Amino acid sequence: MFERWSANEVSPEYLLQSLKQSIERPFCLTEVGVLGAKKNCAIEIQSAPLGNISILQYRATGTQTAKRNMVHIRTDHADDYLLYLPISACVDVEQSGRCARISPGDFAFIHTGKPFSAKVISDTGSVGRLYENITVRIPASLLREKAPKLDNNCNRVFTLNPGASRIMATSVISVFSETAALRDGQLEKMGRILIEIIGLATAEALGLANNDSMTLNLRNRSYEKVINFIEAHLSDSKLSTLHIADSCGISLRYLHLLFETRGVTVASLIREMRLQKCRTALCSAGDAYQSISEIAFAWGFNDTSHFSRLYKKRFGCTPREHWKKSIS
Q1: Between the N and C ends of the chain, which has fewer C-beta atoms within 10 Å?
Q2: Beta strands in the chain (DSSP E)
Q3: What distance in Å separates the CA atoms of residue 157 and residue 163, rounded to the nearest whole number?
Q4: Which residues 6+ apart lie within 8 Å of 98 measured at CB?
Q5: What is the model's pTM?
Q6: Beta carbons within 8 Å of 119's beta carbon, 6+ residues apart
Q7: What CATH code is assigned to 241-327?
Q8: Which CATH homologous superfamily contains domain 3-213?
Q9: Where exactly are the structural domains of the chain?
Q10: How do residues 269-305 score in pLDDT, each as one tens digit?
C-alpha cells in the first residue's frame, strides 16, 4: 500500500503528532521535532512496503529532528537497519558515540536497536524549495547474512562509488517511483531483489573501507620505518631522499606520498630533526667543550653559515647566543 502524507493536510497544533505517526507506521517508534515556525513548515511523506522492507521518501523545508531512546526501544523491540540515502539534504546522525554527517552522494546505516538522534538540514540552497531524502527499513537479520560486519559499522558514512553502491541507490529510487503501479506479489519480489542489491553494495563498501584501513596501516608502518632510518642517519650529510627510499625498500614517489599526507616534506622534516638535535647539544653543559661548527657537522650540516641562518630563523637566536646562555 502506497501512503502519502502532507503537512498541508493538518493544522499546525497537530503537526508533530501526525508527523510522528506517519514515520512510525513504516519504520519505528521515535520522537520527532520541527525547528522553527510550524505553520510555515512544508513536509511531504510517501512510504511503501515491499515485502520485508519499507521505503520512505521525505520531502520538506527547514530543519526536522528525530530521536529514538531506550523507552522507544523497550516498547518497540525492532531489530532493523535504516539505510539513509540523502538526495538533496544533509543528515547529522549520532549513535553509539559516533557522530556523522551523511551528505548527498553518501549512504549510511543506523540500527534501530540502539538509541540515535538525527537532524535533517536543507542542502537545496533555496529557502522555499523542498529537499528530499530516502530511507529504507531492512530487517537486520536479512542484511547480516550478506554483510556480517555491518553491526560494527553503523553510522559510518560510505560514498556512492561507481558500481554496486550506485546501482543500489538508483534501484531504490527507481523501484520506489513505480510502487504505485506494482501489485502485491510484485512488491514482495522487488523487496527481495532490493535486499540482494543492498547487501551486495554494503559488502562492497565494507570491503573497500577495510582495504582503506589496511592501506592506512601499511602507510603508517612505512612512515615509522622511514622515520627510524632518518633518525639513525641524521649525522650523514649526504643523506638523500633516494638513499632513504632505497634503504627502506620503497619507491621515491611513495616516500614523498608518505610525507605529503602529513603536510610536510622529507627535507623539511630532516632539517627540523637536525636543528632540534643541535639545540639539545647547545643546551647541554656536557657538550660545552664542542664548538658550534662541530655540533653542526655532527648532525649533518656541512655549512656553518647556512646552519646559523636556519637556526636563528627557527629558534629566534643564533647558535652562538644559545651556546653562551648554556655555559653562563
Answers
A1: C
A2: 3-6, 31-35, 43-50, 53-60, 63-68, 80-86, 89-95, 98-102, 106-111, 116-122, 131-139, 158-159
A3: 17
A4: 154, 155, 156
A5: 0.61
A6: 63, 64, 65, 66, 91, 92
A7: 1.10.10.60
A8: Jelly Rolls (2.60.120.10)
A9: 3-213, 241-327
A10: 999 999 999 988 888 755 555 788 999 999 999 999 9
